[in-house]
Amino acid sequence: MPSPFHTILIAMPGTRSTALSAKAEGKAKGEARAVLAVLNARGVEVPENVRADITNCTDLDQLGTWIHLAATADKIADLGFDAA
Question: Is pLDDT of 33 > 70?
Answer without folding.
Answer: yes
